[in-house]
C-alpha cells in the first residue's frame, strides 16, 4: 500500500487516504479476529529463515501485549488516515509522499510490536525512526519542521544504537535472539546489567523520558495527523512497549527499578509542570503526553502484577483520549486559524460535536468517571497503595503520581477551557476589535469625502495587531464530518471500554500475570469508598484549584528559576560538537592524500603490527624461496618500490609502481596461478595507461621543492609496512582455528559450478554475490568519473569521424595548433607525385586517422594497431568462453578488449575510439549488470538459490549436444561491465580531456568553444 500511495493520490487526490486506511485497518481486524484465542493463551507464531548461516530469521509472534499494541496501531492509524482525507487541502503538495511514509510507518510499527527476534525488532525500531523523521519534517520549507525532524532523529537514533548494544549483549549471553525465549529464561550477570541500562536508554529516547523529552514538543511542527498518530498511539508507544516487553524478565533487578522509578516519576512531574504554562493547544498536549508517558512507563516497568495491569489499561486509554485530543486541535485550528488558547472564545458553541469529543477525551485524561482513563488511574492508585518495595520508595512513587495527576487535571481543564469556553475578556476584546473594524470602515468613507477629523478614531483603534486579535465566534465555520468524526469515535470508544472493565481485565490480565511479584490487579468502574477513591477526589480538587488560580500559578512559575532547559542544552551541545568537528577536521583533513595514507599506514604499523611482533605466533621454519626466478622477481619489486617511494616525478613513480605490479604477476605465474598472473598483467597495463592519461593534467613533479627528508620518511614507512605485511603473511595462517573453506573449492567448483577453473567458478558461482557487488561498484565508479570530468551535459553522443567538421587547410586536424617541424619532409614526395598526376602513397590504416594532425600520427603505430586489434578481440572471445575450464573468464576478456580499445585510441585519437566502439558506455554497463542479475534469477526459477549455476544441455542439428552453464551468461555480464568501464574511462580521462586541453590551448578560443564540434582536416583518402 505504501508503494502505491503516490499513484493513488495522483488518481484520487486526498480521497486516496481512505483507501490507504485499509492497510492499518486490516491489522486491527486481524488482531480482533484472534481476540478469543489470545485470551485462551494461543499465541500465533510465524518463522521464516532469513540468513540461516548467521542464524537470522523473520520471527513474528502475537501475545497479549502484541495484540493490544497491534489493535491500537491499526485502529488509530486507520482513523488518522481517514482524518487526513479531510485535513489536507485538495491542492496541497507532497500528499503522495506523505501518505506513503505514513502508511509505511504503520507497517513498521506492526512489525515492531509483533517481532519475536530482537535483531528484527531493532530493524523495525530504526525504520520507525526514519519514517518519523520524514513525517515530522513534512513541511520541509519551514525551518521549525526541519529542526524538529533533525532533533528527533538524532535523539532517537542515539537511543536506538544504545538499544542495539543491549540487544547484542542479551543475545550473546542468552544464546538466542528469540525474544520469547529470552523473556522465558532471562540471562543474568554483569554484562546483562549493562544490557538492561542500554535497553532502557533506547526506551527513554523513544518514549520521550527526561532528559530526552524535549524532542517531542518540538515535533509539534509536524502536521496534526502525525502528532495524533506518532505521539499518541504509535512511535512513543514503541518505547513503552520495549519496557513492558522486558519488564517480566528484569523488573525485579535493582538497576531496572531505579531507572524506571527515577525516569517515570521525573517525567510525569516535569511534563505536567511544563504543560501548565503553555498557550499553544498542541504544546499543552505535547507536554501532557510527556507527563502521561512517564506515568505509563512507571506502571508497566514497576514490576508488580497490579501495576502492570493498570499500565496496560492506561496504554489503551491514553491512545484513545490523546489521539482524539490531537485530532480535535486540528479541527479547531482549521476552523479558527489559530491554536493560541488566549485568542479562542465561543468555539464550543460553534463546533458542538468537536467540543463533545474534546470534553470526553479531556475527562478521560484527567480521570473522570465513567471513562477509560478513570478506570486505569483508579487501578494505578490502588496498586501503588499496596506497593511491594520498601516503604519509602512506595511513598515517593505514590506522592509523585498523585502530584503529577493534579497537574494533569489542571492542564486538562485549562486545555478544554482554552479551546472551547466562552471567555468574557476575550469576547470583550472581540467586540472592541469589531468596533475597530466598523470605525475603520467609517474612517475610510470619511477620508474619501475629505473629512480630516475622521482619522483620530482610526489611530486609536490601531493597537490590535491582526495576528494577536481574538477569534470572532461568528466567523468560525463548521468542518467536514470526516474531520470531526475520527476524534469523536475515539472519544466514544474511551467511554464504551470503561463501561465493561471486566472485559478489559480478562484481556490484559494474562500478560500482567507474567510479572514476577505482587497480587493480581483489577479493573473496575466502582470499587466502593476506598483510599484510592479518596486520592482521586483529592487529585480532582487540587487540580481544579490550580486551574482556578491559573494566573497566579503562571506568575509563580515565571518567578522561579527554571534552570537549564533540555532543548537549549541540546542545541548548545550540538553547537559545541559542530565546533569540535570543525577543529578536528581542520587538523586531520588537510587535503593531502599522502598525509591521509601515511596516517593510515602509521596506525597499521604501530597498532596491529606492534602487537604481532610482541605476541604473535611465528613459524618454526621459513623457506625463503622455491626457485631462483622468484628471487629475481622479488628483487625487481623491491628496487621498483624503493625508487618509487623516493621519486619526485609523477610519471617516473607511476612507471616504477607498474614494474612492481608486473613483478607480482611473475610471482603468481611462478606459483602456478596463470589466471591471477594474466589478470594482474592486464590490470597493471590498463592502470598504467589510465594513470598516464590523468598525469597530462597534473604537474610533472609532486612538489616544487626538493624535499629530501620526505623521501626518506616515505621510504622508511614503506619498508615498515612491507615488513609488517610480510609478518602478517607468516603469522595469520597460524592463528587459524578451523579448516579453510577453500579446501572444498575444487570439488564444489566442479560438482555445483560445472567448471574446472576454480578461480573463475569462484567469481561467477561460489562468490557470485561478491562479484555482483563489485561490478555494481564499477558502474558507480564509472558514473562518478564521468560526472567529474565532463563539462558538457553527459549524453549518448558518440564521437564519429563523419560528425567532425572540416575547416580546410587552416586547421589540418586535431592538435594542429602545435608546431610541425617535419611537415616539409612529408610534403616533398607527396607534392611531387601529385604534380605528376600519380596517386599519393599515403594509405588509410585507421578509420579516423585523418582527424589527427599529421605530426600526431605514427604510421608504424597505425599499422601495428590495424594488425593487432582484431586478433585481440578474437583472443578476448576465446578467454570468455574458455574461462570456465581454462585460464580466462569474463573479467580477463573484458580487460583484453579494454586494452585493444586503448590501443585504437592512442593510435587514432578520440574519433578513432568512436569508430572502434560506436556504443555508449552506459549501455554496456547497464546491460552487463542487468544480464548478471537476470541470469542469477534463473536458479530461483529452477528451484535453486539465486545466482546458483544451472547446467543446460541443448541438442543442435549437425553440431550435437551443447553443454551450457548459466554462469557463462553471468560472465558475459561481467565482460560487458568491464568493457563499458574501460570505454567510459577512455571517453572521460582520454577523449574529453583531449578536447578540453585542445580547446584551452587555442589562443583565440572563446568561452563557448568547448561546446562546439572539432575542426578537422588534413589526411587524405
Structure, explained:
With 1021 residues, this protein is mainly α. Helix content is 68%, strand content 3%. The chain contains 41 helices and six strands. The strands form three sheets. Strands 1-2 form a two-stranded antiparallel ribbon. Strands 3-6 form a two-stranded parallel sheet. A two-stranded antiparallel ribbon has the order 4-5. α5 (64-87) packs antiparallel against α23 (481-499). The protein is elongated.
Task: Describe what is shown at a glance.
The chain has 1021 residues and is mainly α. 68% of the residues lie in helices and 3% in strands.
In terms of per-residue confidence, which ranges show pLDDT below 50 for 5 or more consecutive residues? Answer: 436-466, 806-811, 1004-1013, 1015-1021
Largest sheet descriptor? 2 strands, antiparallel
The number of distinct β-strands equals: 6
Give the integer mean of the pLDDT values: 84
> How would you sum up the global shape?
elongated
What distance separates the N and C termini?
Answer: 65 Å
Give the count of helical stretches. Answer: 41
Instruction: Round the Cα radius of gyration to an integer and report it.
Output: 39 Å
Roughly how much helix do the residues carry, as a percent range? 55-70%
- Largest sheet, order of strands side by side? 1-2
Q: How large is the share of residues in beta strands?
A: under 5%
Overall structural class, as computed from helix and strand content, comes to mainly alpha
Amino acid at each position: 500500500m505504501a508503494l502505491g500511495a503516490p499513484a493513488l493520490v495522483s488518481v484520487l487526490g486526498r480521497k486516496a487516504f481512505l483507501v490507504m486506511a485499509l492497510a492499518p485497518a486490516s491489522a486491527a481486524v486481524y488482531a480482533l479476529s484472534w481476540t478469543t484465542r489470545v485470551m485462551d493463551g494461543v499465541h500465533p507464531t510465524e518463522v521464516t529463515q532469513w540468513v540461516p548461516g548467521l542464524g537470522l530469521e523473520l520471527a513474528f509472534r502475537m501475545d497479549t501485549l502484541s495484540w493490544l499494541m497491534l489493535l491500537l496501531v491499526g485502529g488509530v492509524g486507520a482513523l488518522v488516515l481517514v482524518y487526513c482525507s479531510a485535513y489536507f487541502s485538495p491542492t496541497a503538495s507532497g500528499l503522495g509522499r506523505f501518505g506513503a511514509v505514513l502508511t509505511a510507518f504503520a507497517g513498521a510499527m506492526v512489525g515492531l510490536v509483533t517481532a519475536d527476534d530482537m535483531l528484527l525488532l531493532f530493524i523495525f525500531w530504526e525504520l520507525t525512526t526514519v519514517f518519523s523523521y520524514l513525517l515530522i519534517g513534512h513541511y520541509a520549507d519551514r525551518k521549525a519542521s526541519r529542526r524538529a525532524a533533525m532533533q528527533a532523529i538524532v535523539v532517537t537514533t542515539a537511543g536506538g544504537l544504545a538499544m542495539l548494544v543491549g540487544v547484542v549483549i542479551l543475545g550473546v549471553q542468552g544464546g538466542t535472539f528469540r525474544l520469547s525465549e529470552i523473556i522465558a529464561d532471562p540471562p543474568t550477570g554483569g554484562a546483562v546489567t549493562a544490557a538492561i541500562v542500554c535497553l532502557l536508554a533506547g526506551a527513554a529516547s523513544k518514549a520521550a523520558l527526561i532528559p530526552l523529552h524535549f524532542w517531542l514538543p518540538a515535533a509539534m511542527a509536524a502536521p496534526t495527523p502525525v502528532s495524533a498518530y506518532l505521539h499518541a498511539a504509535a512511535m512513543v508507544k514503541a518505547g513503552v512497549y520495549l519496557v513492558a516487553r522486558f519488564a517480566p524478565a528484569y523488573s525485579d533487578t535493582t538497576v531496572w527499578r531505579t531507572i524506571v522509578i527515577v525516569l517515570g516519576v521525573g517525567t510525569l512531574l516535569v511534563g505536567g509542570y511544563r504543560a501548565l504554562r503553555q498557550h499553544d493547544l498542541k504544546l499543552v498536549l505535547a507536554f501532557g503526553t510527556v507527563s502521561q508517558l512517564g506515568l505509563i512507563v512507571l506502571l508497566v516497568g514497576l514490576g508488580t502484577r497490579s501495576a502492570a495491569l493498570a499500565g496496560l489499561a492506561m496504554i489503551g486509554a491514553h491512545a484513545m483520549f490523546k489521539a482524539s485530543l490531537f485530532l480535535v486541535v486540528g479541527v479547531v485550528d482549521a476552523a479558527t486559524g489559530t491554536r493560541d488558547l488566549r485568542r479562542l472564545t465561543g468555539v464550543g458553541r460553534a463546533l458542538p460535536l468537536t467540543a463533545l469529543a474534546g470534553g470526553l477525551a479531556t475527562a478521560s485524561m484527567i480521570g473522570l468517571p465513567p471513562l477509560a482513563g478513570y478506570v486505569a488511574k483508579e487501578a494505578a492508585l490502588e496498586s501503588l497503595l499496596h506497593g511491594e518495595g520498601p516503604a519509602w520508595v512506595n511513598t515517593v512513587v505514590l506522592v509523585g503520581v498523585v502530584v503529577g495527576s493534579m497537574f494533569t487535571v489542571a492542564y486538562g481543564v485549562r486545555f478544554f477551557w482554552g479551546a472551547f469556553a466562552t471567555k468574557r475578556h476575550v469576547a470583550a476584546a472581540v467586540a472592541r476589535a469589531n468596533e475597530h473594524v466598523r470605525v475603520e470602515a467609517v474612517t475610510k468613507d470619511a477620508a474619501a469625502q475629505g473629512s480630516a477629523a475622521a482619522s483620530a478614531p482610526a489611530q486609536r483603534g490601531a493597537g490590535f495587531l491582526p495576528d494577536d486579535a481574538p477569534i470572532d465566534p461568528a466567523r468560525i465555520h463548521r468542518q467536514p464530518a470526516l474531520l470531526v468524526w475520527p476524534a469523536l469515535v475515539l472519544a466514544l470508544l474511551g467511554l464504551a471500554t470503561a463501561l465493561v472493565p471486566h472485559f478489559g481485565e480478562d484481556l490484559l490480565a494474562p500478560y500482567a500475570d507474567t510479572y514476577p511479584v505482587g497480587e493480581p490487579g483489577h479493573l473496575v468502574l466502582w470499587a466502593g469508598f476506598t483510599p484510592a477513591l479518596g486520592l482521586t477526589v483529592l487529585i480532582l480538587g487540587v487540580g481544579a484549584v490550580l486551574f482556578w488560580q491559573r494566573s497566579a500559578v503562571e506568575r509563580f512559575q515565571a518567578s522561579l528559576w527554571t534552570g537549564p532547559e533540555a532543548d537549549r542544552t541540546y542545541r548548545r551541545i550540538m553547537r559545541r560538537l559542530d565546533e569540535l568537528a570543525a577543529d578536528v577536521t581542520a587538523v586531520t583533513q588537510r587535503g593531502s592524500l599522502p598525509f591521509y595514507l601515511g596516517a593510515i599506514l602509521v596506525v597499521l604499523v604501530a597498532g596491529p603490527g606492534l602487537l604481532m611482533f610482541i605476541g604473535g605466533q611465528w613459524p618454526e621454519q621459513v623457506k625463503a624461496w622455491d626457485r631462483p626466478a622468484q628471487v629475481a622477481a622479488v628483487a625487481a619489486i623491491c628496487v621498483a618500490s624503493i625508487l618509487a617511494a623516493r621519486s619526485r616525478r609523477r610519471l617516473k613513480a607511476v612507471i616504477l609502481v607498474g614494474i612492481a605490479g608486473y613483478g607480482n604477476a611473475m610471482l603468481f605465474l611462478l606459483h602456478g596461478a596463470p589466471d591471477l598472473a594474466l589478470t594482474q598483467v592486464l590490470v597493471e597495463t590498463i592502470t598504467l595507461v589510465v594513470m598516464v592519461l590523468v598525469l597530462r593534467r597534473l604537474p610533472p613533479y609532486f612538489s616544487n621543492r626538493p624535499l629530501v627528508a620526505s623521501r626518506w620518511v616515505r621510504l622508511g614507512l614503506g619498508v615498515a609496512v612491507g615488513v609488517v605485511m610480510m609478518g602478517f603473511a607468516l603469522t595469520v595462517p597460524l592463528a587459524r582455528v578451523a579448516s579453510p573453506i577453500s579446501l572444498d573449492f575444487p570439488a564444489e567448483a566442479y560438482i555445483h559450478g560445472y567448471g574446472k577453473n576454480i578461480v573463475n567458478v569462484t567469481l561467477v558461482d561460489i562468490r557470485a554475490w561478491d562479484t555482483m557487488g563489485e561490478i555494481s561498484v564499477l558502474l558507480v565508479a564509472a558514473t562518478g568519473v564521468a560526472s567529474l570530468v565532463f563539462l558538457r551535459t553527459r549524453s549518448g553522443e558518440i564521437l564519429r569521424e563523419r560528425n567532425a567538421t572540416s575547416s580546410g587547410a587552416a586547421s589540418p586536424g586535431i592538435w594542429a595548433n602545435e608546431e610541425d617541424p617535419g611537415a616539409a619532409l612529408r610534403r616533398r614526395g607527396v607534392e611531387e607525385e601529385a604534380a605528376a598526376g600519380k596517386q599519393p602513397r599515403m594509405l588509410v590504416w585507421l578509420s579516423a586517422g585523418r582527424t589527427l594532425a599529421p605530426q600526431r600520427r605514427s604510421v608504424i603505430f597505425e599499422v601495428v594497431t590495424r594488425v593487432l586489434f582484431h586478433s585481440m578481440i578474437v583472443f578476448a572471445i576465446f578467454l570468455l568462453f574458455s574461462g570456465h575450464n581454462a585460464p580466462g573468464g569474463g573479467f580477463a576478456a573484458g580487460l583484453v578488449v579494454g586494452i585493444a580499445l586503448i590501443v585504437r585510441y592512442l593510435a587514432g585519437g578520440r574519433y578513432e575510439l568512436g569508430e572502434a566502439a560506436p556504443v555508449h558506455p552506459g549501455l554496456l554497463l547497464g546491460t552487463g549488470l542487468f544480464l548478471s542479475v537476470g541470469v542469477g534469477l534463473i536458479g530461483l526459477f529452477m528451484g535453486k538459490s539465486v545466482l546458483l549455476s544451472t547446467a543446460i544441455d541443448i541438442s543442435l542439428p549437425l553440431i550435437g549436444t551443447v553443454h551450457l552453464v548459466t554462469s557463462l551468461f553471468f560472465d558475459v555480464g561481467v565482460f560487458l561491465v568491464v568493457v563499458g568501464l574501460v570505454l567510459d574511462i577512455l571517453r572521460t580521462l582520454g577523449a574529453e580531456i583531449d578536447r578540453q586541453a585542445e580547446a584551452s590551448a587555442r589562443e583565440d578560443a572563446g568561452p563557448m568553444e568547448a561546446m562546439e564540434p572539432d575542426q578537422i582536416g588534413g589526411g587524405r583518402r
